[in-house]
Design a protein that fits this description.
By secondary structure, the chain is of the alpha/beta class. Helix content is about 30%, strand content about 20%. The chain is globular and about 45 Å long.
């Protein structure tokens, strides 16, 4: 089990691919688990703002218009109300490749990056590994990491809970600290003020 100290100074949070399409009924990306998780995500965002933790939101720069005519896959969930300077538009999986995210993290002296969002087996996974590869302590906020059931695979279907469990276990083996958002916020509060 990975264990490094959680400090307020140097911590940041990344909300990954929490697009409006995930909460829009009828959209091919609609994910009921995300709809149910929005109140917890709003609380996490509010706690981070209260504690003056830098907030970032990675969102796809583009998505095929034929599959998303309203552009919902490239817009953050509206009730999360991210500021324009917090948005990172990415073209591939992960938040670092082809973006200025690393520069933004350096500008806030980030040494620990907590990540939540979509999806445990793709973008969130990649962002956590990319952070670790850059010497940043990665924290997976487990209850706020989502996925979709893998029903079409040559190896058979994989349930949502099994997919998340396997990917989070592999991340923990790769030096990612696993904890709930509530545990992370409590540790940040214990760490005292930033100044």
């Amino acid at each position: 089990m990975v264990n490094f100290p959680i400090q307020r100074r140097g911590s940041a949070v990344l909300f990954y691919d929490l697009a409006q399409s995930l909460i829009t009924e009828g959209h091919q990306q609609y994910t009921p688990e995300v709809v149910a998780g929005v109140p917890a995500l709003r609380k996490l965002l509010s706690d981070c703002r209260r504690l003056q933790i830098p907030v970032f939101c990675a969102i796809p720069a583009s998505y095929p218009a034929s599959r998303d005519p309203q552009g919902y896959a490239t817009k953050p969930i509206p009730t999360l109300a991210f500021q324009p300077g917090e948005i990172i538009q990415h073209a591939g999986s992960g938040a670092f490749y082809g973006t200025d995210f690393e520069t933004r993290l350096l500008s806030v002296s980030c040494s620990t990056l907590a990540v939540c969002g979509m999806s445990a087996d793709r973008g969130v996974n990649m962002a956590l590994r990319e952070a670790a590869n850059r010497g940043i302590n990665p924290v997976a906020l487990t209850a706020d990491i989502f996925a979709r059931e893998l029903s079409e695979s040559s190896l058979g279907s994989v349930s949502l809970s099994e997919l998340k469990r396997i990917h989070l276990a592999a991340l923990e083996r790769s030096l990612v600290h696993l904890m709930s958002a509530a545990e992370w916020v409590t540790e940040l509060e214990r760490a005292g003020s930033i100044a």
